[in-house]
Amino acid sequence: MQTIENIYKPILVEIIEVIQETADVKTFKLKFKDPEAQKSFSFKAGQFAEYSVFGVGECTFCIASSPTRMDVIECSFKVAGKVTSALDRLNVGDTMGLRGPYGNWFPIEEMKGKNVVFIAGGIGLAPVRCVIWNVLDLRKEFKDVTIIYGSRSVGDLVYKRELEEWAQMADVKTVVTVDPGGETPDWKGEVGFVPTIVEKVAPSGVDTVAIICGPPIMIKYTFPVLEKLGFTEDNMITTLENRMKCGLGKCGRCNVGNVYVCKDGPVFTHKQIKALPDEY
Ligand code: FES
Q1: For residue 3, what are the CA distances in angstroms to 7, 36, 40, 48, 98?
Q2: Ligand 1 within 6 A of 268 CB?
Q3: Residue 246 in contact with ligand 1 by CB distance below 6 A
């Protein structure tokens, strides 16, 4: 008899580490319960997954770890609703569900041989961090690497240990900023909104790909700065993880016009975003 595969069936994963990034953002390191499932799982930088808490529901966010490091899968989430609150109550050793990977990905292959500028705001560093580690693990294949990251305040910076690690790397330029008023007395980074700091750092747009993710207002004001620096519409790439529910093109929650973020994205060039209806 033919069996019908349940596309909504999650893979069981165990939480092996919990990192409290900020007051309301956590990172989980996850390991598959079944080693065979772990071996057969693969994804590309930029893809997302559905994470489930049994008896509560599912939520969608990117895979925050790099496909060059397949020993664990990492996800970071901000507590913002029923499912993320339930996730927040889970601990090391607990089992949760994961299904995916879904969606398209950042064009790592096409980026090889070019400069790469990463620009992120707030928890928008999660999908960007996946690409950062992917690029750094293949460092020789890329030219200059620049990371510009900002958050509202020092307390809101995520992946602090990695920001320090990137800052120590001689072949990576890392600039971290907080919004005016968000600095502490001992803060040594920049103070200013991300688009302003991008203007100040002024990476050349020649032969350079920019990977951008953060609050919509940050993205909106960063694009024109990059255009002035010579970035082309095809070389400014972002991810729109918002509004997704099923992740499979079935629920109709994520569409912008006739574009389905979950199936046509979540990764889009600036050129593609400009072609979307104004509602986005
Ligand atoms: S998330 Fe359901 S259709 Fe895209």
Answers
A1: 12, 20, 20, 27, 21
A2: no
A3: yes
